[in-house]
Amino acid sequence: MTTGTVIGGGPNGLAAAITLARAGVETTLLEAGDTVGGGLRSFEAIVPGLVHDHCAAIHPMAVGSPFLATIDLERRGLRWRSADIECVHPLDDGSAGVLRRSVADTAAGLGADGAAWRALFERPVRNFDKIGPSMLGPLLRVPRHPLALAGFGAPTPLPAAALARAFRTPQARGLWGGVAAHTFRPLHEPMSSAIGKGMLTAGHRFGWQVAEGGSGAIAAALLAEFEDLGGRVETGARVTAANLPSADVTLFDLDPHQVATILGARLPARVRRAFTRFRYGPGAFKVDFAVEGGVPWTNPDARRSSTVHLGGDFSEIAASERTIAAGRMPDRPFVLVGQQYLADPSRSVGDVHPVWSYAHVPNGFAGDAAKAIIAQIERFAPGFRERIVGTAVCSTTEMSRYNANFMGGDINTGSKDPLQLVFGPRITLQPYDLGVPGMYICSAATPPGPAAHGMCGFHAASRALAKL
């Protein structure tokens, strides 16, 4: 019997384990934490019964994942839920850029920029079923539908700042900038458009949905699938160089530094060099709130959306992202706010609601960003402070303790600068290979990168099976 070990139980580790088990490999998944899930874990905090997501919260890429589409998720207890509006980016004058599920409806709300929005998204959204597998795969692989993919991919090498010039209104520019900022990179850099374009395309096609009961429900569904295939899970099992199990196939859902530490001299020198030099991006400083009556946004659409981006106009967002990339904390950081309870009321307790937020901060930021986050929310929702029942803070240090892949609070598992976005931890056409027979890396450090889609794990495991 062929044996497999997967080290790390995040969404990619679970996807890799399922892929191996489906192929008849006797697979064991080892997770250092008390539960599997990685960034897909939920918890009750502040008020008993109030459900918060630890990290991943909104899932446009997961709903459209070709790997997750192979699982009967509803049978596994996972149900997707949507708010009335997908995402809102409020401005200081009370207006906002508003992302709706329909491209046409979004364009209609953007006035003079409606035609530009349609030009960017109508065709890729219509062709998503053709281009989705290529979007969520290694970027240098020959696509099955090259012409359709070209319609999506042509703008992605551009800096987000260059693409912003396609828009004339502050509402459209702000909406675009807020989504592009998910790359955690300066918006004047090449390819800083790629993640934003992918998120918006998937979001228009599937919605920016949440998992009913919390993002942990996604991990629970994957775990149930794996165990039904005969897979074995051990939690509290931290792997080191001294206790690395022997198996025909080993996949690491770990960041490259951890892989290099475990394998040491077993890695070819060129791979070890690349992994020890792997670059991390800015961090996330997270604050969960219990809020009585919800957030009193000035813009009414923000009161109906599961996601609100706070950063002012495009120029302010761009300046903030440049500042954190340079290792300095801005006075007004870019802040993401999740109101998942608007899509999934089961997370609330009476009129007290869980509000999820994090600010972009320098990697390893040692200060307290909670006041800056509250100030940014208060800026667009006067009276917010008075509604706060309680808070739970997760600093960049605590973020990396919660998940060792999030070094310095880097929830993307590595800087998504142009080289690492395209190639992963090292420049190669085989981003999952470690140069050690039977061993592969499958974390979000590899293409296609972060999110709950599981595609890094699926592609790495498929590569391992092909090599067998």
Q: Helices, strands, pairings?
A:
Elements: E1 3-7, H1 11-22, E2 26-31, E3 42-44, E4 51-53, H2 60-63, E5 80-81, E6 87-90, E7 96-99, H3 103-109, H4 114-126, H5 128-135, H6 146-153, H7 160-164, H8 170-180, H9 194-206, E8 210-211, H10 216-228, E9 232-235, E10 249-252, H11 256-263, H12 269-276, E11 283-292, E12 307-310, H13 314-325, E13 335-338, E14 352-361, H14 370-380, H15 384-387, E15 388-394, H16 396-402, H17 418-423, E16 439-441, H18 455-467
Parallel strand pairs: 1-2, 1-10, 2-9, 10-16
Antiparallel strand pairs: 3-4, 5-8, 6-7, 11-14, 11-15, 12-13, 13-14
Would you kindly provide a written description of the structure presented here, covering whatever features stand out?
It comes from Tsukamurella sputi. This is NAD(P)/FAD-dependent oxidoreductase. InterPro entries: FAD/NAD-bd_sf (IPR036188). The chain is an alpha/beta fold and 468 residues long. The chain has 2 domains: 3-79 and 211-279 and 407-466, FAD/NAD(P)-binding domain, CATH 3.50.50; 81-127 and 139-210 and 281-402, Polyamine Oxidase, Chain A, domain 2, CATH 3.90.660. 35% of the residues lie in helices and 16% in strands. The chain has helices spanning 11-22, 60-63, 103-109, 114-126, 128-135, 146-153, 160-164, 170-180, 194-206, 216-228, 256-263, 269-276, 314-325, 370-380, 384-387, 396-402, 418-423, 455-467, and strands at 3-7, 26-31, 42-44, 51-53, 80-81, 87-90, 96-99, 210-211, 232-235, 249-252, 283-292, 307-310, 335-338, 352-361, 388-394, 439-441. The strands form 5 sheets. Strands 9-2-1-10-16 form a 5-stranded parallel β-sheet, covered by helices on one side. It has a 5-stranded antiparallel β-sheet with strand order 12-13-14-11-15, with helices on both faces. It has a two-stranded antiparallel sheet with strand order 3-4. The longest helix has 13 residues, at 114-126. 59% of the residues are buried. The mean pLDDT is 94.
